[in-house]
Amino acid sequence: MTSSAPAPAPVIEKTAVTKRLQAVGAAREFGILLALVIVVVAATVANPNFLFSADGWRDLLLTPSILVLVAIGQAIVLITRNVDLSVGSILGLSAYLTGRLFIDIPGIPILAVFVAAVVFGGLLGLVNGALVAFAKVPAMVITLGTLYAYRGINVLWTGSDRVNASDLPKDFLALGTGQILWIPILTVIALVVLVIVGWIMKNTRGGREFYAIGSDPSAAELYGLRVTRRLLIAFVSSGALAGLAGVLYTARYGTVNSQAGSGWELDAVGAAVIGGVAITGGVGSVWGAAIGAVLLLTINRALPILGIPDFWQRAVVGVLIIGAIVLDRVLAVRQKRKLIAAREDD
Amino acid sequence: MNRFIQIHLDEEAIVQTDPPQTPAPPMLELSRVVKSFGPVVALRSGSLRLQSGSIHALVGENGAGKSTLVKIVAGLYRRDAGEFRLRGEEVDFTSTAQSKAAGIAVIYQEPTLFPDLTVTENIFMGRQPVNRFGRIDRKAMRREAEELFQRLGVRIDPDRPAEGLSIADQQVIEIAKAVSLDARVLIMDEPTAALSGVEVDRLFAVARSLRDEGRALLFISHRFDEIFALCDTVTVMRDGAYVATTPIAETTVDEMVRQMVGRDVTELFPKTPAEIGEPLLEVEGLTRAGVFHDISFSVRAGEIVGLAGLVGAGRSEVARAVFGVDPYESGSVRIGGKGLPKRRPDAAIREGLALVPEDRRKQGLVLESSVSRNVSLVIRGQLAKAGIITNGFENRAAKVWASRLEVKTNALSTIAGTLSGGNQQKVVLGKWLATEPTVLIIDEPTRGIDVGTKAEVHRLLSELAGRGMGILMISSELPEVLGMADRVLVMREGRITAEIDRADATSENVMFAATHATGAHS
């Protein structure tokens, strides 16, 4: 349409409902941030070293950094109404690849290893995406299959071998523990990725199309959106981020065997769901997923300090996930009711 | 301008006739377009000519080929033959994106929006205004949305999610989208079906202003009063072919109805006379708010009662309520004098009621299972011995019905989804006949079935009635209703508007009762 409208358009005021909804959306991420603060405060009161010690502060930021990356990738895929269960296996493969590159090619530049692992992860993600987008098989099934397949390749390749810290260059290992000012390098990397991906998801056409596809896939087809391409990009992103997480895993822990990263896919899905990403697509943000990842791992560390027995720690995580889903469901139902009511007020 | 009316009841003449010639090159022109799906010919000879600055109505019975024609224009289907021109140039769309790029916008009866995204995002998805870093300019986008709504004279909050919007508002958003794309051709497929009187008036005001901007509009509707109120020209289709194009001022409702149904039907669907006995199914005052109202009728032994009406009149909903799948607020259902409880299909089956649903692929069959498993599905309880059921039991039961219905399949282990439409329908029928019902409700018995199998299904229904079964047959195909039914009930907008005996039923009076909307604007 042309912008030469004769009269200035009267501004349609934001209705009360719209304002409240935007508040709720922000509150969802704020809410889990608040939960995170409460956990940290409680643990610090029980043991001041949890926060007020060099190690405490470093662990608080460092521990969740790698999972944050995987959860960001997972959130992108979940927002398109799919799921990527193979991220743990991709992380494991790229972690071992990192070690092998340093062992087999002495003097290889660290940057080259990063690029190789990210590209490798992206290719594994492309396999997932192609199977989902072209074969039209539900992502749950495809990525459950590649979860086992990729892990199988890992076991075949690694055998009983393992990468040890002594095989790796000192500069590389320093990445895993080093800090810029008071912030661990891994955390800086995770934050940079988070800011970039968060911006793309919110402000670009491509980013909004992920939401559109997840919100109603058949409508996306009718709109003429390039659904296949978007799905491929989502899975490649998820794979590439898991690949990046694999390199950082090696830098952080120094030892990699054939089981590295196993079970991480569930933590990643859990983190995203806790952070308000709807498993049915179209709703949530990578920021929420990232905060969810921090909360998930911080709770794991805080519970022993608060004197909660081992036995209950996994259960608490479960309660957290179910609680988050129930909360989202209740909010969604209430929102729908309010939106319908707002319509009838007109 | 050529102003005479062309009516051709002779099929040969239909195929060889085009809409009247006009001097200006038409905006959109379809000429003798053909489309088939396997053996089913959906469109034999579709012709349509849309002019800029004009609202054109497209009418015809269900199955006349209107939707197929629209889907070809929208790029959802590709035509098998015929010509399709846009501004005089030959086009052949292979996707909806191409049709959209050519300036064609289709607004479907049920709009498809993204519920989680805002109204503004819904309008601009995929083509949001961006700066040179690829950042979406939300302010510009919102301003444009406001301007669009102002131009269309509606007030919708551009920041709210699409979730929870009324169908009317969703259509307005679709229209806003079309306008922002500067679509030159707007097609509205029964847009008023779900709207209230006020909403219809608002939609019409929008449509008129779009016409005055020089766009070509196509309006598909069953409501004659709306067509006369809004449109400039009307094209009638029948049996997948073009019948006539007439300026609206030069036609009447009776004329249009005659063009829509005009054909000889009695020969095609013979029902053998059967002895009509006691009432088997009695429905009294059945009401479900907003869906159907005060529905009363009875079906007697040996009788086929046809339930006619347009799609969306509430016929299938009544059938589902009678069978106990859907709830209802008041009224009663009795079988053989015995009352049926609400919402208990199992009780309905026990009392001898069977329902063959409209959509056999979704509701009638387990497509992935074998023929024999499908046939024995409802009677599994009776087949089982000590709670255990074997393939042998299933096959024995299925064999009886498959042979009686002449299901054409090599083996009973054939997967149901691979059968033809007609044979699938027979399997669904077999499944329900295996329960030995006294009353059969059958919804659209021959939809999407080729002519030969159609006749078999009709013969079968006739035979069942002859053995004393009571049959309620819902059908959108007038010839089928007129040929098969002993008595015709007509529904419109949730009410029974006519009950006509076989001897008195004609295409005209049934169609009139189904369409004559006296209250559409109230």
UniProtKB/TrEMBL annotation, chain A:
<feature type="transmembrane region" description="Helical">
    <location>
        <begin position="30"/>
        <end position="48"/>
    </location>
</feature>
<feature type="transmembrane region" description="Helical">
    <location>
        <begin position="140"/>
        <end position="159"/>
    </location>
</feature>
<dbReference type="Pfam" id="PF02653">
    <property type="entry name" value="BPD_transp_2"/>
</dbReference>
<keyword id="KW-0997">Cell inner membrane</keyword>
<feature type="transmembrane region" description="Helical">
    <location>
        <begin position="110"/>
        <end position="134"/>
    </location>
</feature>
<feature type="transmembrane region" description="Helical">
    <location>
        <begin position="180"/>
        <end position="201"/>
    </location>
</feature>
<comment type="subunit">
    <text>The complex is composed of two ATP-binding proteins (LsrA), two transmembrane proteins (LsrC and LsrD) and a solute-binding protein (LsrB).</text>
</comment>
<keyword id="KW-1133">Transmembrane helix</keyword>
<keyword id="KW-0472">Membrane</keyword>
<keyword id="KW-1003">Cell membrane</keyword>
<feature type="transmembrane region" description="Helical">
    <location>
        <begin position="60"/>
        <end position="79"/>
    </location>
</feature>
<feature type="transmembrane region" description="Helical">
    <location>
        <begin position="85"/>
        <end position="103"/>
    </location>
</feature>
<keyword id="KW-0813">Transport</keyword>
<keyword id="KW-0812">Transmembrane</keyword>
<feature type="transmembrane region" description="Helical">
    <location>
        <begin position="311"/>
        <end position="331"/>
    </location>
</feature>
<dbReference type="InterPro" id="IPR001851">
    <property type="entry name" value="ABC_transp_permease"/>
</dbReference>
<comment type="function">
    <text>Part of the ABC transporter complex LsrABCD involved in autoinducer 2 (AI-2) import. Probably responsible for the translocation of the substrate across the membrane.</text>
</comment>
<protein>
    <recommendedName>
        <fullName>Autoinducer 2 import system permease protein LsrC</fullName>
    </recommendedName>
</protein>
<feature type="transmembrane region" description="Helical">
    <location>
        <begin position="231"/>
        <end position="251"/>
    </location>
</feature>
<feature type="transmembrane region" description="Helical">
    <location>
        <begin position="272"/>
        <end position="299"/>
    </location>
</feature>
